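Work Package 3 (structural annotation) set out to generate three-dimensional models for the target panel prioritized at the project kickoff. During this period the team completed the workflow that converts sequence records into discrete structure tokens, so that structures can be stored uniformly alongside our sequence database. As a representative example, we reproduce one entry of 207 residues exactly as it appears in the project archive.
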Amino acid sequence: MRTVAVTGGIGSGKSAVCAILSSRGVPVYDSDSAAKGLYAKDDSLLDAIEEAFGCGIRQADGSLDKARLSSLAFSSPERLRTLESIVHPAVLADFKRWNAMQSSRFEGSGASDVFFGKEPFCVMESAIILDKPEFLSVVDRVVMVDAPLALRLKRACGRDGVPPERIIQRIAVQRFDLSKVDAFIRNDGSLEQLRSETEKVFSELNI
């Protein structure tokens, strides 16, 4: 099934865009949520991360200590790359299974208003896709959501309950190759403005 990646930096509003698309009936695969699900059900994934980092990342009940993993992963670009080399192949395999299920679900369906008058397509929400060739290889178009830095910091701090310094640390390790982006959505207004902009961009996007 043809796939559009929706990406953007921390606090840009990519999840809000994906929520708008999902509310129309467009299938959306949330890469972050998928990774969290894999952490919860695949002990071998946590074993591999602990071995790579040389320390524990689990709570007393055996579940992932999310705060500790985040602190370790974002402490340096090298550690982030190490984590990604373990987690990303698992997420990619999970996406391919999900995509196949969506293809079967919409098999034989024609163009519809749900898909902006186009043939059915799905969306992958991913913050890191522009820097990951293995993920780019499974998508057909890339849409980037952007917003002013001050607004992104305000959103992210309010959502995650962490100080601005922590968010800036995360932003510093994110890299975006804008030459791979097919369309941009600006998110610096109201939710209704974002909905209107999202519908405009996807209506005009050649999928």
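The mean pLDDT is 91.
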